[in-house]
From TrEMBL:
Region (Disordered): 1-44
Domain Alpha/beta-hydrolase N-terminal, residue spans: 70-281
Keywords assigned by UniProt, alphabetized: Membrane, Transmembrane, Transmembrane helix
Low complexity composition-biased segments: 13-29
Membrane-spanning parts: 54-75, 81-104, 124-143, 163-183, 204-225
Record's protein name: Membrane protein
Pfam families per the UniProt record, alphabetical: Abhydrolase_9, Abhydrolase_9_N
Organism: Corynebacterium variabile
Top-level taxon of origin: Bacteria
Every Alpha/beta-hydrolase catalytic domain range: 298-581
Residue spans of biased composition, Basic and acidic residues class: 30-44
């Protein structure tokens, strides 16, 4: 965050006609021009006193971005998140305004040390204050209107009147904290500049001071803050990993990891692993839906309690699959979990219903962190886990005679979809090595997803691209989208499920400066037409949307349940699960599907 000019030397070059006066934030009209140049020694003494002063240019840009931050994005935002977005937007606007003001003055100056300025009177600040107040109130009123429209689209209740005071307070606090941090950073730069000014020419001192403080900031952020923050987070989430949810009970079946004869202990599975192996449809439920004798599904899982070597854990997961008899099942599903080991139960339950239990699912944990943190710091481990697990399982399958090999499918949701893709460098490789794949809510850096999206057929939208005329790979927000193309859908089939309102899929650093195609083309059915791309603002809004992406009803945001079994039915076409009979079964099992655990 750039600092203000109220604590440093005057910043308007003598004799230069200024488009706007220099500002210090003082509310007096007195002329403060200094005829006697300030020496480095006197400046150093003055630097010991710190006062919070606001840049007028920075305040103007902050007000503009503050009002723009009220515009709608993908999902409903409550007052807390809107306050955070508004405060951060205003702080970024302030930083931009201060920097631009500084840059313009610096370019027009002959000698940076000769700058002279004058203070701004209340006649400048009063109109800006009125505009800011009126604009913020009007923006909040319009914000509530827009948010209620978004809430109506996704089936949520309208915002209460409390949105107004809570948003104001949170926005003010966030803005103040960020500005204070930025001004503290600027004070450090100016202090170092003053010390160096005693030894070297002013311009060299200024460049050197900025470079040193930036280097120090990066070092502290990466070497100290990041290190100890990650140690704290890992310790905290490792403790949570040792807990067991109330609905998880150690299996008594040999077909589940953590049960009798298992190669891994119940305690080693982790919280999400224990949830995974202790849930799912019973044989009685399977028989009720399918009307025939069922077998108990196999669920194999290896947690970080078995060690931190991902390659060894993947090999152990494959051995556990073989131990449970997975190679004798009709389908083997290789699932990539999110960081903490979470798997959407609907994805696995659907397959178990469709194959009447004649299926084995295998997965593994690679982090203690939840999905969003793993996405930031553990993405390489997600990639490694996906590669090691698939290769270990595939090696076991290839040991069998070709006519006895089960079908193999892969799946993953969110960061899990990123890991599930990792074993396949190209889409043809994916279709050559599997019998089908389902990727749900992909992230912006999924390699195969990005390839298919960027190379989509001309005329198809980014939110639902058509790749290679849909020969093997298709995109859908709902199952009916899979049938939109007239071309033949050849096997093996790959599906990406992605909602138009899913911020996990559409978030990207590119949003800061580039308009995405999905906001240039026609909107999805659950995205307002009034949602527009605004540089920086949209990035902050979608970032906030990610935090609430699973707190919306099924079919919106990052919540996927009912479309998962429909997608599997299209991918694999199990006997009895297509046509009218299959639709009746799908309607029967959808209410039974669970989404236990958390991202």
């Amino acid at each position: 965050m750039a600092s203000t000019n109220g604590t440093g030397p005057s910043e308007v070059p003598a004799g230069t006609p200024a488009a706007e006066p220099a500002e210090t934030g003082a509310e007096t009209g007195a002329d403060t021009r200094t005829e006697t140049p300030e020496t480095p020694e006197t400046r150093l003494g003055r630097m010991t006193t710190y006062r919070l002063r606001l840049s007028y240019t920075g305040a103007v840009v902050a007000v503009v971005l503050l009002m723009l931050s009220m515009t709608p994005s993908l999902l409903p935002r409550g007052p807390l998140f809107q306050g955070a977005v508004s405060g951060a937007s205003a702080a970024c606007g302030y930083m931009i305004g201060v920097f631009l003001s500084w840059a313009v003055r610096y370019m027009f100056s002959r000698d940076f040390s000769e700058w002279r300025g004058r203070t701004l009177s209340w006649r400048w600040w009063a109109p800006l204050g009125v505009v800011a107040l009126v604009g913020f109130v009007a923006g909040l009123w319009k914000f509530r209107e827009w948010q209620n429209e978004v809430r109506d689209l996704v089936g949520e209740s309208p915002l209460a009147w409390t949105v107004f005071p809570v948003t104001v307070v949170v926005a003010a606090l966030v803005f103040l904290v960020l500005v204070l941090l930025g001004q503290g950073w600027g004070t450090l730069v100016r202090t170092l500049y003053t010390w160096l000014g005693l030894l070297v020419p002013p311009r060299i001192a200024r460049v050197a001071s900025i470079a040193v403080v930036i280097a120090l900031t990066v070092f502290l952020a990466n070497g100290v803050v990041a290190k100890y923050s990650m140690q704290f987070l890992n310790a905290s989430f490792a403790a949570a990993n040792d807990q067991t949810s109330e609905t998880s009970v150690q299996p008594t079946s040999e077909w589940r990891s953590g049960g009798p004869e298992s190669l891994v202990s119940w305690e080693s599975l982790g919280r999400e692993g224990r949830t995974f192996v202790s849930h799912g449809p019973s044989t009685e439920q399977l028989e009720e839906v399918n009307g025939s004798r069922a077998v108990e599904p196999i669920r194999s899982f290896v947690g970080l309690g078995s060690g931190d070597d991902l390659r060894a854990n993947a090999a152990l997961a494959a051995e556990e699959l073989v131990r449970a008899g997975g190679l004798g099942r009709e389908i083997i599903a290789v699932g990539s979990a999110t960081g903490s080991g979470w798997i959407n139960q609907a994805t696995v339950d659907s397959l178990e219903y469709m194959y009447n239990g004649n299926i084995a699912t295998v997965s593994m944990q690679y982090s203690y962190l939840p999905s969003w943190l793993s996405f930031l710091v553990d993405s390489e481990r997600a990639r490694q886990a996906g590669v090691y697990l698939f290769e270990a399982v595939d090696a076991k399958i290839r040991e069998l005679p070709e006519n006895r090999r089960p079908k193999i499918v892969v799946f993953g949701e969110s960061l899990g979809s990123f890991g599930a893709e990792a074993a396949f460098g190209t889409i043809p490789t994916l279709t050559a090595r599997t019998d089908g794949a389902l990727f749900v809510g992909p992230t912006f850096n999924n390699d195969l997803w990005r390839e298919a999206t960027d190379q989509r057929d001309a005329g198809s939208p980014e939110r639902l691209p058509v790749y290679d005329n849909g020969e093997h790979l298709r995109f859908a927000a709902e199952a009916s989208d899979l049938e939109e193309l007239d071309s033949e859908w050849n096997e093996p089939r790959v599906v990406y499920l992605q909602h138009a309102s899913d911020p996990i899929t559409w978030w990207s650093p590119d949003l800061i400066f580039n308009r995405p195609d999905w906001l240039s083309e026609s909107r999805g059915p659950d995205v307002l037409d009034s949602t527009q791309w605004i540089p920086l603002i949209t990035f902050l809004q979608v970032s906030a949307d990610m935090a609430v992406s699973t707190d919306v009803p099924d079919g919106h945001g990052h919540t996927y349940i009912s479309e998962i079994p429909r997608a599997w039915a299209k991918i694999l076409e199990p006997v009895g699960w297509t046509g009218d009979e299959g639709e009746e079964k799908l309607e029967q099992i959808i209410p039974l599907l669970s989404r236990s655990g958390s991202l």
